[in-house]
Amino acid sequence: MQPSKDDPLPLDGITVAVPASRRAAETEALIARWGGTSLVGPILDEVPVADDGPLRDATSRVISAPATWSVHLTGVGTRRWFGRAADWGVLDDLLAVLKAAHVVARGPKSTQALSEYGLAPEWIPPGETSTEIAGWLGPQVGLGDTVAVQLYGEPVPALTGSLTTRGAAVVEIVPYRWSLPLDPARRATAEGVVAAIANGEVQALVVTSAVQAANLFAVARELGLADRLRQTLADRVFIAAVGEVSAGGLRHEGVAVDYVAQPARLGALIRGVASSSQKIRAKAERR
After folding, report:
1. Which of 79, 100, 87, 216 is nearest to 152 (CA)?
2. How far, CA to CA in Å, does 184 sit from each of 21, 188, 189, 211?
3. The pLDDT of residue 1 is above 60
4. How many whole angstroms from its chain centre is CA 32?
5. Cα-atom radius of gyration of the chain, to the nearest Å?
6. Residues 252-284: pLDDT tens digits?
7. If pLDDT is split at 50, 70 and 90, which confidence band does 7 have?
8. Which residue of 3, 43, 221, 262 is surrounded by the most CB atoms within 10 Å?
9. 45-48 and 176-179 beta bridge pairing
10. Which domains does the chain have, with CATH numbers?
11. By C-alpha distance, which of 211, 272, 216, 210 is closest to 240?
């Protein structure tokens, strides 16, 4: 579906909450293209690890083992890992190991990051989830395998646990972590967005990561608004997620998702929101 200048734009009069940091401006522009208004507020910060000793030790283990598999869950994490390896003077050694190993990428961003260093994934999960990677990779590893798993800011026990139970040695690569907004001004903006959602001042919410969902409710709990937020999302706010991983973060908080974009792309997400404008208006009118 494409907007036509001869037709009313589907999101006219609709305000969409965008609790994003990265790609927030792009999301806002896409929403505006369909006539909507965005309420943007960063709900998370991507923070480099303060002590890179564990990352350096993990890199040494990947090189010395050497790793037989390498799993890359994010593009930014892959680039940060390789960048730190370059700082330590071991990037060539690391890339040599990975070029000889089986490489798995979770999606297009990690695939692009790998390609910048001459690496190509052997497999990409169709749904771009770590659960799919666990199901596909688990039966293929065992004793004698060392698997590097580049994480996306938080542990992924369902993936790493499935590999260790097969006897593989898992090396977790943690180049950054997620946190609530650290800057006081950004934190205040995030609190304002959460309060606006809880108070039903928006008609839709778009979520692009499971961490966004977790942080929405973390902030809401600090404000004493968690129950109100959950009720408002259930009753009055249309909820859209960029894929099953993001949707899972909301479901973990007891919130049903109205629309899940497939494929898990930002453009598909906003097109889906636009095509759901009647549902958005109908849900917003509930009392």
Report:
1. 79
2. 15, 6, 9, 20
3. no
4. 23
5. 20
6. 999 999 999 988 888 999 999 999 999 999 999
7. confident
8. 43
9. antiparallel
10. 15-44+180-284 (3.40.50.10090), 47-178 (3.40.50.10090)
11. 272
Residues 6+ apart with CB under 8 A from 246: 207, 208, 209, 210, 212, 213, 260, 264
pTM, rounded to two decimals: 0.77
Q: How much is the mean pLDDT over the chain?
A: 92
What does 235-272 look like in DSSP terms, one character per residue? HT-EEEESSHHHHHHHHHTT---SEE-SS--HHHHHHH
Q: Name the helix (H) or strand (E) containing 163.
A: helix 157-164
Q: What is the number of other CB atoms lying within 10 angstroms of the CB of residue 251?
A: 15
d(CA 16, CA 269): 12
**21 token code pair:** 């940091």
Q: Looking at the DSSP assignment, which residues form a beta bridge with residue 241?
A: 207, 260
Per-residue three-class SS string for 42-111: CCCEEEECCCCHHHHHHHHHHHHCCCCEEEECCHHHHHHHHHHHHHCCCHHHHHHHHHHCEEEECCHHHH
Phi/psi for 56 (5° steps) reads -65, -40
Structure tokens at 72: 């890359």
Question: How confident is the model over 102-116, as pLDDT tens digits?
Answer: 999 998 989 999 999
DSSP label at residue 205: E
Tokens matching residue 247: 């949707």
